[in-house]
Design brief:
Layout lengths: L10 E6 L5 E2 L34 H13 L6 H14 L7 E3 L1 H11 L2 E4 L2 E5 L5 E6 L4 H5 L6 E5 L2 E2 L5 H8 L6 E8 L3 E8 L1 E4 L3 E6 L3 E6 L6 H14 L4 E5 L8 H9 L7 E7 L2 E7 L11 E5 L6 H11 L4 E4 L7 E7 L5 E10 L15 E2 L4 H5 L4 H10 L2
Parallel strand pairs: 13-14, 14-17, 17-18, 18-21
Antiparallel strand pairs: 1-19, 2-5, 3-20, 4-11, 5-6, 7-8, 7-9, 9-10, 12-13, 15-16, 15-20, 19-20
Length: 402
């Protein structure tokens, strides 16, 4: 969608509620709204109104002059300007506020559309700032190699990742299909493991469905993408036609995606007008999202499966269905991504992704760094995976067959 220029050629293209950036997909669980939003939507609530409208660049120019006079290497004006912009975003010390060059923005938006080249795993940062795997996507190279949610990235191709930003790690893990990347990770803060993973081109539908024994409908959403609304509506209509007795909504290892997709999915179960989430700055509510109607699946007993790889839009959906008494949660505690970003587009194709608010469940809770605890905790072990067992799905079927 082309941004609508405003002011000095800038426009906010989307509201973002996830954004656990990807590593070559390191697919960001980005949650993006579908309307054009005024660039000043949150300005009146900003804590930074006392800052000057323009910075004093005299000391920056001192550093610039020293660089060009002394640096043993080639510098370009565009790279230095991009470095300044990246640095401004990094100065927030918020891992989700980032500047993208035009090329980075193009890659980012391609990943939002679920088309990318990489290893198929989401990368974020834990509460200590360590680079962390949010979730490997089922069936893709990272998952096949054995990467797991919560693995900490120690090295990338032999280079320490300790001081890397998410962007830097993403760029190092990315690469052409058919090439390899070597990762050393730490699992459970104790076990060092090494992986050599071959990158591939990836194009995924975001929704998979089937009918389980006992006429139970199964819907898996891998990311909340541009195709999610249509695919979930089609699945819901099919489930309704087949008169399923219960539903499993599988959001495990789903890093998030488009906010409007989370709202549309939740609306398949909820009555029109029911609250899905609120956005707040401090105690001030700045936006609310409510169910849209067309609740084809309303009243059908539903289990939502979550785990530590379920983030952002997944958590919005799981939290809304749970808090509005439309679903029972089974699995493990979710990731815990409860802040909101906006994407601001600039005329040269670059973007700023900036944290503007926190989002809250219908029960009033913000899940940032806390996650959502399921109603029934069921673990899925390495031994289960190796034996192709799924005790979490088994538990969901048992619950629905009561």
């Amino acid at each position: 969608m082309e941004p609508k220029p405003t002011g000095k050629g800038r426009a906010i293209a989307r509201s973002v509620v996830n954004i656990v950036i990807l590593v070559v997909i390191f697919l960001v669980g980005v949650n993006v709204g579908n309307g054009r939003i005024n660039v000043n939507i949150h300005k009146e609530h900003s804590e930074n109104t006392s800052l000057p409208s323009r910075l004093d660049y005299s000391t920056v120019n001192d550093v610039y002059k020293s660089l060009i006079d002394n640096y043993d290497g080639k510098l370009t004006e565009s790279h230095l300007e991009d470095g300044l912009k990246h640095g401004l975003a990094t100065a927030t010390k918020d891992p989700y506020t980032q500047f993208f060059t035009a090329k980075e923005a193009q890659d980012f938006n391609g990943e939002l559309n679920n088309s990318f080249s990489g290893i198929g795993a989401q990368l974020g940062a834990d509460s200590d700032g360590n680079l962390e795997v949010i979730a490997p996507i089922d069936g893709l190279p990272a998952q096949k190699a054995g990467l797991q949610a919560k693995d900490l990235i120690a090295t990338i191709n032999g280079e320490s990742a300790a001081d890397m930003t998410i962007d830097e790690a993403v760029n190092k893990i990315r690469g052409p299909a058919g090439t390899q990347v070597k990762l050393q990770v730490v699992r459970n803060h104790s076990q060092a493991l090494s992986f050599t993973i071959t990158r591939q081109d990836i194009n995924l539908p975001s929704v998979k469905t089937k009918i389980l024994p006992g006429n139970i409908g199964y819907m898996q959403i891998t990311t909340f993408s541009n195709d999610t609304n249509d695919l979930t509506l089609k699945a819901a209509q099919d489930f309704k036609t087949k008169q399923v007795k219960g539903l499993v909504l599988d959001l495990r290892n789903d890093p998030g995606g488009l906010l409007d997709a989370a709202v549309h999915v939740s609306s398949l179960w909820l009555n029109q007008g029911q609250l899905i989430l609120q956005e707040k700055r401090g105690s001030q509510v700045v936006d609310s999202n409510n169910a849209l109607g067309n609740n084809i699946l309303h009243g059908i007993p539903t289990v939502v499966l979550i785990n530590s790889g379920s983030a952002s839009a997944s958590e919005i959906t799981a939290g809304a269905l749970h808090d509005q008494h439309s679903a029972y949660l089974i699995g493990e505690k979710s990731y815990g991504k409860g802040v909101v970003q906006q994407l601001i587009n600039f005329r040269d194709g670059s973007q700023l992704k900036v944290t503007v608010a926190s989002w809250y469940r219908p029960d009033g809770e913000n899940i940032n760094h806390k996650g959502i605890t399921p109603d029934q905790t069921v673990k899925l072990s390495d031994a289960d995976r190796q034996a192709s067992k799924d005790p979490q799905l088994d538990a969901a079927q048992a619950y629905l067959n009561k």
